[in-house]
Design a protein that fits this description.
Largest sheet: 5 strands, parallel
CATH superfamily of the largest domain: Response regulator
Order of helices and strands: EEEHEHEHEHEHHHHHHHH
Strand order of the largest sheet: 4-3-5-6-7
Distance between the termini: 25 Å
Low-confidence stretches: 1-40, 171-211
Radius of gyration: 19 Å
Strand content: 5-15%
Structural class: alpha/beta
Shape: globular
CATH class of the largest domain: Alpha Beta
Helix content: 40-55%
Oligomer: single chain
Number of helices: 12
CATH architecture of the largest domain: 3-Layer(aba) Sandwich
């Protein structure tokens, strides 16, 4: 059973407790309880990482991967919360989701950089986490002051390389001087050499989705690779996915009925990030279309598209439930 130590931080004062990865608290974060195989573990000291992410599914995936490498993870649910926790804590690295409520990740990063400049506080490296991997998005992250760029869903090897490239062989940020604005372009190695082509989604040999086997909706080879070939971790995430997908489906239905384009864009975006663990399947394509329609204020078209989401999503949910029940991955 996969168990991690968790912090619950309602008042920005962390309290460490013990909880399983499937805890009902959406503020669960953790310390290392497992380590990955040596060939895939970053050769850097354990880091104190602030994870700014509002989606529960992505919180669990990122926390599990980072704690396996020995890092300590604290969770911020909004961009504003991330800035507040950064101000009162000491973090070696921030993983910042670009799209969050109250204050998005770009604004939060700009505010952190401003406060660093005003106070002389050492610069904290910030890696963007986003569902997009286009040149314009990369440039926005650079302009906001970010040091790295990760597209969702997170991948073991890619995240490993990003974190390692920032810290391997270097002293932690508490002993480094703040980097002046004039020097930023010379210090952003992870973004200066991106692993994706301009205007195209980021892909690597490790993460390229394979075709679903037979009549399956999900790409289980892709899902297992996304979890570092850790079957136990994938099983835990499957349980989380079922409950989260059911909740999000109901919320998406409500936004369509109410004509809430902002809510539809936000909820579709969240579901898309979770579904992509199982590859760019039919569910992913429909949810992505719903998000795009909502962002272009085309609610009438979204109402027509929404019913087409139900059959493939129900098929995927049935498939995931079978995997959770049987503990068997349909890889062949």
């Amino acid at each position: 059973h996969f168990t991690i130590r968790c912090e619950i931080d309602p008042d920005l004062q962390a309290e460490t407790v013990s909880a399983s990865m499937t805890t009902s608290s959406p503020t669960a974060v953790g310390d290392a309880s497992q380590t990955e195989s040596p060939d895939s573990t970053p050769q850097i000291p354990p880091l104190n990482i602030l994870l700014a992410e509002d989606d529960y599914f992505n919180q669990q995936l990122a926390t599990a991967l980072l704690t396996r490498w020995g890092h300590r993870v604290s969770l911020a649910q909004t961009g504003r919360n991330a800035v507040e926790m950064w101000q009162t804590g000491q973090y070696d690295l921030i993983l910042m989701d670009v799209q969050m409520p109250e204050m998005d990740g770009l604004e939060a990063t700009r505010l952190i950089r401003q406060k660093e400049s005003e106070s002389g506080r050492p610069r904290t490296p910030i890696i963007a986490i986003t569902a997009h991997a286009l040149t314009d998005d990369r440039e926005k992250c650079l302009a906001a002051g970010m040091d790295g760029y990760e597209s969702k869903p997170l991948r073991v090897q890619r995240l490993n390389q990003q974190v390692t490239s920032l810290f391997e062989g270097a002293m932690l940020h508490r002993t480094r001087p703040a980097i002046p604005d004039s020097a930023r372009s010379e210090t952003r190695t992870p973004l200066d050499e991106p692993s994706f082509d301009a205007g195209q989604p980021e892909t690597t040999k490790e993460e390229a989705p394979s075709a679903p086997v037979g009549n399956q909706t999900g790409d289980w080879k892709h899902a297992l690779a996304s979890c570092g070939n850790d079957k136990d971790l994938l099983m835990e995430l499957c349980s989380v996915f079922v409950s989260e997908a059911e909740r999000l489906l109901n919320e998406i239905k409500e936004t369509v009925e109410q004509g809430d384009v902002q809510g539809l864009a936000r909820k579709s975006h969240t579901l898309k990030g979770s579904v992509e663990l199982f590859g760019k399947n039919d569910v992913f394509l429909v949810v992505r279309e719903l998000e795009d329609l909502a962002r272009h204020d085309r609610m009438d078209d979204a109402r027509n598209v929404f019913p087409t989401l139900l059959p493939p999503l129900n098929n995927l949910l049935d498939e995931v439930r079978r995997v959770v029940t049987t503990k068997h991955l349909p890889l062949t």
